[in-house]
Design brief:
This is Peptidase C39-like domain-containing protein. Keywords: Membrane, Signal, Transmembrane, Transmembrane helix. It contains 12 helices and 12 strands. The protein is α+β, with helices and mostly antiparallel strands. It has 2 domains: 2-171, no CATH class; 181-402, Cathepsin B, Chain A (Alpha-Beta Complex), CATH 3.90.70. The protein is elongated. 38% of the residues are buried.
């Protein structure tokens, strides 16, 4: 009798365990919105097309039924004004696929348990012990199935969120250092200098022709265009006004180029850009990284490093160094230099007592984003910055470049 009870417990334990582990994520339903834009196509109101890659298509181990669930529950994107967000159901449908697959396995195991119990019962020939054993198999199978198929109802009554996971909602983040088209004003390669720092425009004829990619990687900007459009690092190909190039994403390179040219003569902007890529300055989707630009300046045998904050910036300007900073418009609606993120070069003091520094802005040929007094006809406001408010912007990166 003890042996019969033990087998019964084993059967119940198997089904209870499977029920506990698998029923919680039951039928994770992805929410939808009737006013939507499919994720596979660019949102009509965004300034720049975007692409999302469905991870379900790249799974190494396929779960039966997962492709059908993915096609029935697509990712959904909605656009409100200039902001686009996407509801991604991939995790929930993956869990649902696991549950559905497990339910099929449980059904097969239950059927086998029922058949085993039936065979034992038919061959018991009146033996009370074998009849009891057969009943335990049948009872265990039915109990396990009952638990599995009623748990959904019970959990749904307790809290519907236990059985209906919501899709993950994420905002589409554009390249914050990507210069908008309205700011891509034609400009000469070099203009007059400030404190001995030459002024270069990123959207010069030359700047538009020089691609700017991550080291050993093609940045998929402007809707995910690839190597066929831009070539490779060894053999780059760029359209006159295409992405990714210095005009759209090279404010960090041009600001560093200006700083370096105060202390030495570097005339080949394309070679300078290739070296920036090699030093890790380019980060796809984020413009340039200050750490890579510091390495770039050091490559030309100059002193360079992080300023360590406002006091460090003041000290380096006092020493006659050029300070390169990245300003950000995040949570700063009155930022006069950018609507996203942007590198500029502080060339020296204009009014030291008032903490106002002169600025070489590689995109300063335009009044965009028309904040802080800047207009289409008044771009003088882009030639200076106050260290008290950073031109209405936030300060995100900062480093100095000094002579040997």
């Amino acid at each position: 009798m003890k042996k019969v009870w033990t087998r019964k417990n084993k059967v119940l334990f198997i089904f209870l365990f499977l029920g506990t582990m698998l029923i919680c994520p039951i039928v994770a339903s992805a929410q939808t919105n009737t006013s939507t834009t499919p994720v596979s196509t660019p949102a009509a109101t965004t300034k720049k097309p975007f692409i999302t890659l469905d991870p379900i298509l790249k799974l190494q181990v396929k779960i039966p039924g997962l492709d059908k669930l993915a096609s029935d529950t697509p990712a959904i994107c909605t656009t409100e004004g200039d902001r686009t967000s996407c509801s991604l159901p991939w995790i929930s449908i993956y869990i649902k696929a696991i549950y559905n697959y497990a339910m099929g396995i449980v059904g097969i195991l239950a059927a086998l348990a029922l058949m085993i119990g039936g065979v034992i019962y038919l061959t018991s020939t009146g033996n009370a012990t074998r009849i009891s054993e057969a009943k335990s198999w049948i009872t265990g199978a039915l109990t396990g199935m009952l638990i599995m198929f009623t748990s959904y109802v019970l959990l749904n009554e307790v809290n519907p969120d236990l059985v209906g996971f919501k899709s993950i909602k994420l905002s589409v983040v554009e390249d914050t250092f990507n210069l908008p088209e309205e700011a891509q004003i034609e400009g000469p390669t070099s203009i007059s200098s400030s404190h001995g720092v030459p002024l270069f425009r990123q959207c010069s004829e030359e700047g538009k022709k020089i691609v700017y990619n991550e080291k050993n990687k093609i940045c998929p900007s402007n809707g995910g265009k690839d190597e066929k459009k831009y070539g490779t690092q060894a053999n780059p190909v760029s359209p006159y006004n295409g992405n990714p190039n210095l005009c759209t994403s090279g404010c960090g390179v041009l600001s560093t180029f200006m700083a370096v040219n105060k202390f030495t003569s570097v005339t080949d902007l394309q070679a300078f850009t290739r070296q920036a890529e090699q030093q890790g300055a380019r980060v796809c989707g984020s413009g340039s990284a200050g750490t890579g630009l510091i390495k770039l300046a050091k490559y030309y045998n100059l002193q360079a490093g992080d300023t360590g904050g406002v006091e460090g910036i003041k000290q380096k300007l006092d020493e006659g160094c050029v300070v390169v900073i990245a300003v950000s418009a995040a949570n700063k609606p009155n930022c006069k230099f950018t609507g996203g993120g942007h590198f500029i070069a502080l060339t020296g003091w204009r009014e030291k007592d008032n903490l106002i520094a002169d600025v070489n802005d590689p995109a300063g040929g335009s009044g965009y984003p028309y904040k802080g007094g800047c207009t289409a006809t008044n771009i003088e406001c882009k030639t200076w910055i106050s260290l008290n408010d950073w031109g209405g912007c936030g300060l995100s990166q900062h480093f100095y470049v000094c002579g040997e």
